[in-house]
């Protein structure tokens, strides 16, 4: 099982350089592709204003990371061209374009990347909390606004798929809430209890599900024992499922901006691998997103 991103990168070096289709002129995305090329796992196809990209490229003496530049100045056209390009090869990385614009292209019924699966965002970060080194997943802070029970089941399936690719055959899934008891005035706790019961009855497979769980007792054995919680998931969760996009987005950004841990973000469920990191994410986070997305695409 991969315990950190360096292990993932070392593993990917044996597969050659995957084309990374960057849509929108973004300095950090270009730097991430440059770094991916330097370590031997990627090469860039850049979709956007050629003039703006050329200004960014001037910072690099070695231009070997540039496979192609597809000139376009309109964001919707950029996204369509990027989608058409990635159909042939590689993975898709959002640069300066807005997430909504790119997802509109990805979900286009005529030429997009739709499949029968639901599309969800899965974030990942390195954790060594209480001495347990591993990669923890968060879903969904980028796509699902307020998922219902059926949608959350599919969301869990997508997150489990990523965990499996990380080498975890039976991930522990924590359904996050503010408290670890069912409170009828807090609908997310009721939903969590229903999902736990669905797992007990075999309606959710390939993982261990429990909830409601608060964040502290989902990740901390100390908190679990202190609160007297009996659970196979509490204290050692591999996947954190948040009740809505607000809590998921805040949790992910808190990991990065308060916890100081670079966050990788990938999108699961499309016909081709996609990354939709925040436009404010630094190159290090985008490189980790590239590595994670390459891994799950194999």
TrEMBL record:
GO terms for molecular function: phosphate butyryltransferase activity. It holds the Pfam family PTA_PTB. Keywords: Acyltransferase, Transferase. Its EC number is 2.3.1.19. InterPro entries: P_Ac_Bu_trans, Phos_Acetyltrans/Butyryltrans, PTA_PTB. SUPFAM superfamilies: Isocitrate/Isopropylmalate dehydrogenase-like. Residues 92-293 form the Phosphate acetyl/butaryl transferase domain. Signal peptide: none annotated. Belongs to the phosphate acetyltransferase and butyryltransferase family. This is Phosphate butyryltransferase.
């Amino acid at each position: 099982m991969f315990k950190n991103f360096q292990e993932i990168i070392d593993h990917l070096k044996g597969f050659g350089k995957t084309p990374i289709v960057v849509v929108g002129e973004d300095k950090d995305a270009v730097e991430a592709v440059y770094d991916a090329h330097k370590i031997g796992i990627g090469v860039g196809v850049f979709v956007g204003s050629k003039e703006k990209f050329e200004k960014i490229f001037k910072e690099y003496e070695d231009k070997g990371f540039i496979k192609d530049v597809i000139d376009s100045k309109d964001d919707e056209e950029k996204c369509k061209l990027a989608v058409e390009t990635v159909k042939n090869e590689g993975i898709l990385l959002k640069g300066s374009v807005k997430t909504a614009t790119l997802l509109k292209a990805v979900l286009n019924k005529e030429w997009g990347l739709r499949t029968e699966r639901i599309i969800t965002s899965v974030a990942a970060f390195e954790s060594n909390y209480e001495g347990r080194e591993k990669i923890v997943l968060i879903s969904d802070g980028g796509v699902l606004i307020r998922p219902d029970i059926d949608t959350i089941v599919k969301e869990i399936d997508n997150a489990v798929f990523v965990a499996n690719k990380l080498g975890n055959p039976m991930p522990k899934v924590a359904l996050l809430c503010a408290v670890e008891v069912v409170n009828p005035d807090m609908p997310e706790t009721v939903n969590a209890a229903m999902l736990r019961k669905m797992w007990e009855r075999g309606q959710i497979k390939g993982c261990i599900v429990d909830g409601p769980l608060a964040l502290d007792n989902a990740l901390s054995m100390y908190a679990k024992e202190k609160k007297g919680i009996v659970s196979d998931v509490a204290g050692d969760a591999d996947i954190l499922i948040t009740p809505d996009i607000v809590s998921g987005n805040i949790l992910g950004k808190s990991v990065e901006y308060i916890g100081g841990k670079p966050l990788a973000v990938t999108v699961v469920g499309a016909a081709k691998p996609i990354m939709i990191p925040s436009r404010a994410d630094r190159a290090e986070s985008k490189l980790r997103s590239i590595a994670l997305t390459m891994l799950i695409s194999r």
